[in-house]
Fold:
Amino acid sequence: MSMRPGGELATRPLHFIWMADCSGSMAVDGKIQSLNTAIKEAIPNMQTVADENPNAQVLVRAIKFSSGAQWHVSQPTEVADFKWDDLTAEGVTDMGRALSLVAEQLAIPPMTERALPPVLVLISDGQPTDDYASGLKAVMEQPWGRKAVRIAIAIGEDADTEVLQRFIGNPELKPLQANNPESLVKYIKWVSTAVLKSASSPASQTLDSATPGANVPIPVLPESASSSAADDVW
Amino acid sequence: MPDDQFTTRRWRVVGHSVRGASHERAGTPNQDAIHWLPASSSDELPLVLALADGHGSAKSFRSETGARLAVETAAAVVRDFLKVQTESLSATKRMAEEWLPGALVRGWQEAVAAHLAAHPLSPDELDPPHASRHANAAAQIDSSNSLVAYGTTLLVAAVTESFILYLQLGDGEILNVSAGGEVSKPLPEDARLFANETTSLCSPDAWRDFRVCFQVVSHAPPSLILLSTDGYPNSFLNATGFLKVGSDILAAIRAGGLDAVNENIAAWLTESTRAGSGDDATLGLICAEDAQHDADASHTNEDTAGQNRNDAKTGDAFDGA
Structure:
């Protein structure tokens, strides 16, 4: 009688996708190096969060976009095995292509309905050079696109925050403005720990279609990150 | 409204609820609840089983209580409704679909209001520590939306002599298992229940969100009815794996009896939440006694007091016929 009924058990997958701007302007003033460093430093934090919740299977991928877009890490990778190869900067800002690539992967299948809401982190320092609206439309046409946690980080004052705000789609959540390496590290750490932890929680939320992003509460930013930094370089 | 085939049937109910693995790690309570009526041994129908899954979110900080109030209220409201139904099946069906959801919501709201009056929201609840706050302004609770603090789903199945009634608000699963082991869902899917979001007793016009099925049992009624909160089905790799629970449990009942199954439910749920969703998991079974005909005839009808548990304890059963 001890035979457990039903089929195979499994933890719930949580897909975390970095979307990194690798346009030529990211080579200026060490932005791309700072981004590489920030994400590398965030990986142990992500692993800690994943270890604390073994019921969420955190799977990480990355897209790079410049002149075109391609997967930097194409396979959903267990966070324990995730490694970051440095990105280099060159070309324009084809953000729409990157969004289209993400949209393909948010369809069901390959996603499953029982997954936890995915986390999409869009990082950019400039204005899209392609039809970003079509890519964003493709994302939002997918149920998991609409219900994903969409975070945007604007690097420097030339970033198009209006476009990033449209990607977020939630007026209560603004793009995170990183004007120096320190603030970039803090925002990357926040999204890879606090946001990841919130997304991996199984707590239910009341259905509220009028409030985008209500299915995953967004943690408050750390005080030190939300205040303006003194040494802006971007 | 009795049906000759159906009135000969006797029914038993068992069930358990276990605290989710993630709740154990976080130190949060089991926010599911299960309750059934009659509360003690009786040959009386209707038999009503109710499950609820408190949301457990930051703004539903009293959802453990909300779930308990939901199952207690629902079992009583549905039982009382069914006891006074003397009209035709079609009239009863119409009342069940049109009046009962509102009655369930009102009953829960009244129970919550009474609890709030006895236990007003504390300053600590209204202004939580920094770590549990969120950026969403909608997370704030005040006296105008205090029902949200108790937010919960609700699943109900009620067996009478001539029909079975199912009501569901929010996520979770209700399954039928036929005598031949075929598993089906009596209620339609609600596509809105996706990505952690659920309809809720605390929502405005919650009565509109109930799914209701009125199942006349003139022939081929289910042998087994399963109700579960979503922490259990979410622990399986896919939907097929969860549906297999229905046929596997019927086979287990036939092999070893309902009491033996009942002794294992809590362990099964615990294994599932640990290897699966991490969420609280609750499973209630309503079993036709003739579904057990292959089981050991030595079964004794041990009856218990009414069940209302939020912990994994030894489950008991009662009969209704």
Remarks:
- The two ends of chain A are 66 Å apart (CA to CA).
- The helical segments of chain A are 31-52, 95-106, 132-140, 143-146, 161-168, 181-199, 223-226.
- Chain A touches chain B through 47 residues (CB under 8 Å).
